[in-house]
Amino acid sequence: MHERGKLAKGSKLAAAFLFFAACTVLCLPFFQSHEKMYIEKLDQIPDFKQTEKELGFPDQGRDFCAPVAVADTFAYMSEHGYRELLLKEDRNSKTVMPIASCRKLAELMKTRPIQGTSSEDFLNGLKAYIEQCSGYKIKELKYHGWNRHPSEFDEHAEIPDLAFLKNSIRNNRYAWLNIGWYKENQQKHELERQSGHWLTLVAYGLDYNGLSEENTLIVRDPNPVQGRSPRNIFIKVEELKGGRLSGPHQGLPRSARNYLRVVKMGNLTDTSQNRIGIIDGAVVLELWPSPL
Predict the structure, then answer these.
(1) CA dist., res. 43 & res. 48, Å (int)
(2) Pair 84, 134: CB distance under 8 Å
(3) C-alpha to C-alpha distance for 241 and 259, rounded to whole angstroms
(4) Taking a C-beta distance cutoff of 8 angstroms, is the pair 153, 141 a contact?
């Protein structure tokens, strides 16, 4: 009886193991497909524009994409457990756009006409805004990319790869992309950086036609060039296999290998504006759960 009891117990354990293994195999495609697409915040994050007259930014806000991109995210977060991320003036205002918060972000990020907002100032300003203007604590604030940035945000990752970008907006994390606009120099076989732009990353895995596409990122663009009404901008990317990135910036020139090139943005290819978009960097933020 004792041996039979042991055998019975062993059989139950074996059966349980086989059941678990079968469930794992059957469920694996579900988990894999789930990772290929993330659209939870797709139509929820606002789409404010840097050129709004109410903001009062110099030169009609042409170079003020960074603070407005962050305001998109903070407006969403303020409705999802982090109410005080927007300044009191905006929380009590009937105006949809958080004007006071945008202005404060621009001030702390040292955003300037022509120069815009560097990655260093973006990170320092974002941290300062959260610490000075809200009661929340930063759990994670990090940067992947080649642009100059403070060491406290450094993860020794100069290439913001696709896997990192996808993971940067899941759960309670939020992210912003720094797109470098480059012009191709065929004689030197390199891409020369002309300017940059900040975007809000909101989703991935869905293309312009609503089809599954694992190499597509979905963003909010503070620049109204693709329309003033709120809309999803679909960015299809591909990994560069070689070449060089150059320009009058600290951190350049460097190999272009493995950086993500924008092959399509919105419903227009990048060549329509005679420029090539490269994801130079990305900022990721996660706050500790709100105690308020």
Answers:
(1) 13
(2) yes
(3) 8
(4) yes
Phi, psi of 245 (to 5 degrees): -105, 135
State how far the Cα of 169 lies from the Cα of 149, in Å rounded to an integer.
21
Domain boundaries, the chain: 43-287
Class of domain 43-287: alpha beta
**pLDDT tens sequence for the chain (292 residues):** 444 444 344 444 344 433 434 443 334 333 333 478 999 999 999 999 999 999 999 999 999 999 999 999 999 999 999 999 999 999 999 889 999 999 999 999 999 999 999 999 999 999 999 999 998 999 999 999 999 999 999 999 999 999 999 999 998 999 999 999 999 998 888 999 999 999 999 999 999 889 999 999 999 999 987 555 668 899 999 999 999 999 999 999 999 999 999 998 875 544 446 789 999 999 999 999 976 5
- In this structure, the number of other CB atoms found within 10 A of the CB of residue 256 comes to 21
Q: Spell 139-169 as b/e; 16+ CB within 10 A means b.
A: eebbbbbbbebeeebeeeebbbebebbbebb
What is the pTM assigned to this prediction? 0.85
Give yes or no for a contact between 281 and 160, defined as CB atoms under 8 angstroms apart: yes
